[in-house]
Amino acid sequence: MDTTNQGNRHHLFELVKYVTEISFSVLVLILLSPLLLLLAALIWISGRGPVIYSQDRIGKNGKPFVIYKFRSMKFDAESVKPLLSGINEERITRIGRFLRKYRIDEIPNFINVIKGDMSVVGPRPERQFFIDQIVIRNPDFNELLRVKPGITSWGQVKYGYASDVDEMLQRLEYDLYYIKNRSLWFDVKIILHTLGTILKGKGL
């Protein structure tokens, strides 16, 4: 009976989370549409390359998907191999640095939420190139693939961006904690922390 009740609560949590996040994502894109058009124009005149940058990431159950972001780096910045960007990254454009500071570059991620590839809250999605390196050192990373990746995460809130695999492994501990303690209240807490980070301009 306890197992049945636990399963029912889990399904209810997933349903409420899904409906709430889809509604929230649609609302955000509608309300911010004037700003998004302005940003698109600024990115377009900032240099060669697309306004919306797309990249392959790994989602729930290891399923690949294409993530959407505002382009914040120079065109063809990864012409050789996948690279992680640091705080003083020379490949980041002037407008891109502003976008990252306030995490505005991730607003197109809400399209991924509507498509069903991502959640608003969940471990940030990684590329297979880096996952292969992480899993060798800590197989527990596979636990993150049990859920949809998110626009923001406990690891992002508590640790921030990772500039190499070592830092990704340190951030992993926070995301594993989230997986074990997921709840609507925890999601709200992460969103509030994220808003604080955005308002303070500490996205980088």
List keywords for this structure.
single chain; 204 residues; 51% helix; mainly alpha; globular; two-stranded antiparallel ribbon
In short:
The protein has eight helices and four strands. It is mainly α and 204 residues long.
Describe the protein's architecture and organization.
- By secondary structure, the protein is mainly alpha-helical.
- It has one domain (2-199).
- Helices cover 51% and strands 10% of the residues.
- It contains eight helices and four strands.
- It has a two-stranded antiparallel sheet. The protein has a two-stranded parallel sheet with strand order 3-4.
- Helix 5 (128-137) links the parallel strand 3 and strand 4 (150-152).
- Helix 1 crosses helix 4.
- The longest helix is centred in the first third of the chain and has 30 residues, at 2-31.
- The protein is globular.
- The termini are far apart.
- The mean pLDDT is 90.
List SSEs in N-to-C order.
HHEEHHEHEHHH
Biggest sheet overview = 2 strands, antiparallel
Gap between N and C termini: 47 Å
Cα shape: globular
Derived structural class: mainly alpha
- Number of domains in the coordinates? 1
Overall radius of gyration: 17 Å
Nearest-integer average pLDDT: 90
| Helical stretch tally | 8
What share of residues is helical? 40-55%
What proportion of the residues form beta strands (DSSP E)?
Answer: 5-15%
The total count of strands amounts to 4
Uncertain stretches of 5 or more adjacent residues? none
Spatial strand order of the main sheet: 1-2
